[in-house]
Amino acid sequence: MSNVLFDSPGPRTRARHLVYAILTVAAVAGIAVWWILRLNDHGQLDYDLWEPFVTPKYVDTLLVDGLLQTLKMAGLSVLLAVVFGAVCGVGKLSDHAAVRWVCWLVVEFFRAVPVLLLMIFLYFAYGVGESGIGAYWCVVIALTLYNGSVLAEVFRAGIQAVPRGQSEAAYAIGLRKTQVMTGILLPQGVKIMLPAIISQCVVALKDTSLGYAITAPGLTYVGKLIYGEFHNQIPTIAVLAALYIACNLVLTLIATWVQRRLVGRQKPLEVSMVGAAAGEDATAPL
Questions:
Q1: pLDDT digit string (tens) for 17-43?
Q2: pLDDT classification of 6: cutoffs 50, 70, 90
Q3: How far apart are CA 33 and CA 22, in angstroms?
Q4: In DSSP terms, which residues pair with 283 in a beta bridge?
Q5: pTM above 0.90, yes or no
Q6: Of 17, 68, 62, nearest to 225 (Cα)?
Q7: Distance of alpha carbon 74 from alpha carbon 63, whole angstroms
Q8: Pick the CATH number of 53-263 from 1.10.3720.10, 3.90.640.10, 1.25.40.10, 1.20.1250.20
Q9: CA–CA distance from 272 to each of 3, 4, 150, 256 (Å)?
Q10: How far apart are CA 178 and CA 175, in angstroms?
């Protein structure tokens, strides 16, 4: 036995798993081939429909600019959302009832409102007109409020997940609550929160696509301009989806590297094996 949770698979089980894997790959490949043939039958693979995505004029002036605007909106909203979430998350743990209830109300309200409705409201209330803030900032503010509200719950749960003995020991040596929160609980809680924060960054990047509804600059708005001129909706959607997937993969790789730098690799837990023979290794990784 190499694992205390279940027995290692035998030869027949491994062979069955291999067959399942081969059938799954074959099924996925078959679906992909069927989809490509269907697109070809409907003329969606014609060069005229894909020409904008290999023409430097459109790539440089539209796609690259739209991608940069999307990354700017996502990056700025994530930074502001982390600050907003940290303040509201800590506020929900405050000893003062007024602060606690205000933070609770803000978090629950903005977490419940759909992002698209929030963008549209901000745009028509504060975005249009000569003194308006514009569609760009409406998208950033809406994403900040929504993702910050979600991250507030992440921060609160991460702080509460730190063992209680940590804060009790800090109070025992005379530290104030602010010192305990900033010096003890938050640094340890960030390690617990990091996967959820990374996941929310991906959500913020994808939600920038909703900005096309208020003509905000970004990939989806650029895509609307392209298929409005060339009538190539499917090729445009495929290219934009590939760009979003590539950005999310890069973001995930960077976040994973940061997590390893901050948290480090977890070593497998060694447990004693009952009844191990003399001279054999009596521990096994969990």
A1: 999 999 999 999 999 999 999 988 888
A2: low
A3: 16
A4: 272
A5: no
A6: 62
A7: 16
A8: 1.10.3720.10
A9: 11, 10, 41, 31
A10: 8
